[in-house]
Prior knowledge:
Order of helices and strands: H
Oligomer: single chain
Distance between the termini: 104 Å
Structural class: mainly alpha
Amino acid sequence: MDDDLQRPVRSSDFLVVITGFALNLISAFEALAEDLHNMSIYNSQQKSQEAKVWQKFSQDLETIKENKDG
């Protein structure tokens, strides 16, 4: 039995390797873009909530000042 015979390397083998590499690279970029998108959404929501908290805080301070003065 000649099970250890190897077939010659063909140009299609290189094409398979190169396309596999490109697919993995594109997939990595897609994951990176998705993570950046999710982080920007999270950051935007945090900034919005922070602004609401500061607005409420300033209103509370004004109310305290008015109650103290008057």
